[in-house]
Design goal:
Strand order of the largest sheet: 2-1-4-6
Oligomer: single chain
CATH architecture: Sandwich
Number of helices: 1
Order of helices and strands: HEEEEEEEE
Largest sheet: 4 strands, mixed
Strand content: 25-35%
Structural class: alpha/beta
Length: 120
């Protein structure tokens, strides 16, 4: 009987630690829609560790990209970037650091911009 109680205690402890790790990491997902010439939303805050998933509308005619940029919305060297596409698979990026991040569509750089604030 003691062994059974010990097993239940250990399983409960491990489940609690796993739940705490998920809560502390801020892990979650934020979805951004890509429609012709628009990211929605175009400004938001997330917790560090969150995955942002960009999803192309099946109704798009134009091609778009998701490209990390600097604060002037110029493409950032060695930043993340999706392929150029009108529809198709989503693109995701996990934000592992705090700070302000900028994203631009290289095809429509003046119309399609996002500002993401990543906090602890």
């Amino acid at each position: 009987m003691r062994k059974v109680l010990l097993v239940f205690a250990v399983v409960g402890l491990l489940a609690g630690l796993a739940a705490t790790a998920i809560a502390v990491s801020g892990a979650g997902t934020k979805t951004v829609s890509i429609t012709d010439d628009q990211f929605t939303p175009h400004k938001f805050s997330i917790k560090k560790g969150t995955i942002v998933r960009w999803v192309w509308s099946k109704d798009n005619v134009d091609e778009h990209t998701v490209t990390q940029a600097d604060k002037h919305f110029d493409p950032k060297d060695h930043g993340f970037s999706s392929k150029e596409q009108a529809t198709g698979p989503s693109f995701a990026h996990r934000f592992k650091k705090t700070g302000t991040f900028y994203v631009v569509c290289l095809v429509h750089p003046t119309d399609m911009r996002i500002k993401i604030s990543v906090r602890q």
